[in-house]
Design the sequence.
């Protein structure tokens, strides 16, 4: 059986250690908190200080930056990017290749479609069809 971690060098030459999440084999940085029931698919990265809630699903190739919070039952599609300090509410769905900016908020139950962008600091609420509601 292979090792259960990967060491990656950052831009400043510092080595960061990521463990492979037992449920999906995605890479979890030291200091991140991921609920045991969450699925973090292979190729996904969860950075230090990030929190992934119960029954959340992080798709292949997604990147969860430091201090982001992913709520219970939220779904982050493959190759989505959740910015530093962003918060994704419970049961929200984030589409493929969608970028959620730093410190942005996506209200629980919202649907953000594929290839969309939520600006830094923006708060977004949608109905089940993905139509934006007045904030």
Sequence:
């Amino acid at each position: 059986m292979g090792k259960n971690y990967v060491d990656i060098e950052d831009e400043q030459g510092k080595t960061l250690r990521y463990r492979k999440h037992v449920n999906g084999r995605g890479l979890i940085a030291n200091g991140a908190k991921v609920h045991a029931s969450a699925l973090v698919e292979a190729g996904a990265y969860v950075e230090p200080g990030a929190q992934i809630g119960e029954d959340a699903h992080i798709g292949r190739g997604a990147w969860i930056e430091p201090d982001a919070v992913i709520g219970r039952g939220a779904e982050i599609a493959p190759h989505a990017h959740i910015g530093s300090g962003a918060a994704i509410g419970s049961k929200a769905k984030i589409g493929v290749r969608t970028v959620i900016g730093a410190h942005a908020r996506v209200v629980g139950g919202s649907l953000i479609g594929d290839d969309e962008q939520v600006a830094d600091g923006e708060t977004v609420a949608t109905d089940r069809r993905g139509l934006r509601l007045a904030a």
